[in-house]
Design brief:
about 130 residues, mainly beta, four-stranded antiparallel beta sheet, three-stranded antiparallel beta sheet, about 0% helix
């Protein structure tokens, strides 16, 4: 099954702001990344490394002012992967503590939550995954 993924994050930062980003998919046993585009504007110095779970992580310090991150990819996955469309929502207080590792802030953040404070003025976030 083909998946097309896109993400755009835009900020207006009042000061230099550090970021840890996990937006790049990797090819592996269950998926092949056929095309990928990843841009950061303006482009600061970026260090990329692999975390203990095999995720690609980008570390950077964004300059003050307008800042944008765009990521997109076309990914081929196995058709026989297990999925649960329509699965019940599970509140964050329910899973075992060992499962919370997978809810890192870069992977889960309720958008527009009043309890979450952005280092800058968060004025647009769009993320979408669609099948082809």
């Amino acid at each position: 099954m083909w998946l097309r993924i896109r993400c755009e994050l835009r900020f207006d930062l009042p000061q230099e702001t550090p970021f840890l980003l996990m937006l790049r998919p990797r090819s592996g046993r269950y998926q092949w990344v056929a095309r990928e585009a990843y841009t950061v504007e303006p482009t600061p110095s970026i260090e990329e490394f692999t975390d203990p779970f095999g995720n690609l992580v980008q570390r950077l310090v964004a300059p003050a002012g307008p800042f944008a991150i765009r990521s997109s990819a076309d990914v081929l996955t196995r058709a026989d992967l297990r999925s649960s469309p329509g699965a019940a929502f599970v509140p964050v207080q329910v899973p075992r503590p060992t499962a919370l590792t997978y809810l890192l802030p870069s992977r889960y953040r309720p958008s527009r939550s009043s309890s979450w404070r952005s280092p800058g003025r968060w004025w647009a976030t769009r993320a979408r995954a669609t099948t082809r």
